[in-house]
């Protein structure tokens, strides 16, 4: 990134494209606590010659809507999950697009079926290019399009509203701390 360029401000959730795999609008959670990216895959099979084949579901709950991908394994590693347990993981390389930003990233292939987002964007994918506004979602990519993706977005928006209601509004706090409650007195 050019030192004078302004960083791209992204939300804590964005949609990601993987152009080479013809995947568009995949909901992803931005997690600056994770180093690498993770992608939910199913039917992961190792092939001869250091390759893998796997399915990327395009719509949760619709097994017929998926892309079958063949890719070269670039490394094998152990990744510590949020529960603290280190598990082996295969990594492939892919170019992802996040709004105007395109990056070649390592994708850990994992079962994220129990997670809210099929993809996790780690800090290495956005380093020196983005700032994350954790109070917002879908700032640069717009809302997800499928019915399941819209339901996911609605649940995130509802959670954001609950959090916002718990935070005091600065103008109300200021008014409540003035002697007359912030109201003008008639003269």
Task: Walk me through what this model shows.
This protein is α/β, with parallel strands linked by helices and 187 residues long. The protein is built from three helices and eleven strands. It has one domain: Cathepsin D, subunit A, domain 1, CATH 2.40.70.10. It is globular and about 55 Å long. The longest helix has 20 residues, at 147-166.
Features:
two-stranded parallel sheet; disordered C terminus; 187 residues; 44% strand; Cathepsin D, subunit A, domain 1; 9-stranded mixed β-sheet; 3 helices; alpha/beta
Q: And the CATH topology?
A: Cathepsin D, subunit A, domain 1
CATH class: Mainly Beta
What is the count of distinct domains?
Answer: 1
Helical content band: 10-25%
Shape: globular
Q: How would a textbook summarize the main sheet? A: 9 strands, mixed
Task: Give a short overview.
With 187 residues, the protein is α/β, with parallel strands linked by helices.
Task: Please render the helix and strand layout as text.
Blueprint: E1 8-11, E2 13-18, E3 23-31, E4 37-40, E5 42-47, E6 51-57, E7 66-80, E8 86-98, E9 101-110, E10 119-122, H1 123-126, E11 130-133, H2 147-166, H3 170-176
Parallel strand pairs: 1-11, 3-10, 4-9
Antiparallel strand pairs: 2-3, 4-10, 5-6, 6-7, 7-8, 8-9
